[in-house]
């Protein structure tokens, strides 16, 4: 029956899109560390040179993984924008309430190594989710996987909004 096959296809799509949502949220969690690494150092949230390195690297990895480099770069532009949404919000919060600012300053180079590893895993999840990303029900499934990840990773409002921002180009 059409209903049964649609349900089966939807489950496959959940299996494909859940890792993408989960990795996207893990990448956003690094924004807290990046924000702390930069806070009070004069280093700007926006680092266009680093962004270009990330985009060049993931385009190359996409070709190796058999993913569409154009779609991969589009999705990563959104990961980067979402990361900066979190960083800016945290800097505003710490400016307004200095007692809430982090006491430790993480090493930005180390945080970027973690981001690099997550980038590689995300490229894999993008490659593995091509059917679901092109499906007409992609947006509905993505809403479901976003909600799952929000609960699994106990995302606060800021990181939930950022995860939605990061997901903008996933479907279609
Ligand atoms: C995360 C950082 O901050 C911004 C976000 C980036 C990203 O999400 O990859 C890259 C450069 C910066 O514009 C960083 O500087 O590493």
TrEMBL record:
Residues 1-91 form the Chorismate mutase domain. Its EC number is 5.4.99.5. SMART domains: CM_2 (SM00830). InterPro entries: Chorismate_II_sf (IPR036263), Chorismate_mutase-related (IPR051331), Chorismate_mutase_periplasmic (IPR008240), CM_dom_sf (IPR036979), CM_II_prokaryot (IPR002701). It catalyses: chorismate = prephenate. Keywords: Isomerase, Signal. One of its GO terms (biological process) is chorismate metabolic process. The keyword Signal applies. Coiled coil: none annotated. Pathway: Metabolic intermediate biosynthesis; prephenate biosynthesis; prephenate from chorismate: step 1/1. GO terms for molecular function: chorismate mutase activity. Pfam families: CM_2 (PF01817). It is an enzyme of class 5 (isomerase). Catalyzes the Claisen rearrangement of chorismate to prephenate. PANTHER family: CHORISMATE MUTASE, SECRETED CHORISMATE MUTASE. This is Chorismate mutase. It comes from Streptomyces aurantiacus JA 4570.
């Amino acid at each position: 029956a059409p209903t049964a096959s649609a349900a089966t296809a939807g489950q496959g799509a959940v299996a494909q899109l859940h890792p993408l949502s989960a990795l996207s949220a893990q990448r956003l969690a690094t924004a807290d560390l990046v924000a702390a690494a930069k806070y009070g150092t004069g280093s700007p949230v926006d680092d266009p040179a680093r962004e270009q390195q990330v985009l060049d690297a993931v385009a190359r990895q996409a070709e190796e993984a058999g993913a569409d480099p154009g779609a991969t770069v589009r999705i990563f532009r959104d990961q980067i924008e979402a990361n900066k949404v979190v960083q800016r919000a945290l800097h505003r919060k710490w400016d307004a309430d200095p007692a809430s600012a982090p006491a430790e300053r993480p090493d930005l180079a180390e945080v970027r190594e973690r981001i690099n590893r997550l980038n590689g895993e995300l490229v894999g999840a993008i490659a593995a989710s091509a059917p679901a990303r092109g499906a007409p029900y992609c947006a509905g499934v993505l809403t479901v996987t976003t909600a799952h990840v929000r609960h699994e990773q106990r995302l606060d409002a800021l990181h939930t909004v950022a995860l939605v921002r990061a997901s903008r180009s996933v479907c279609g």
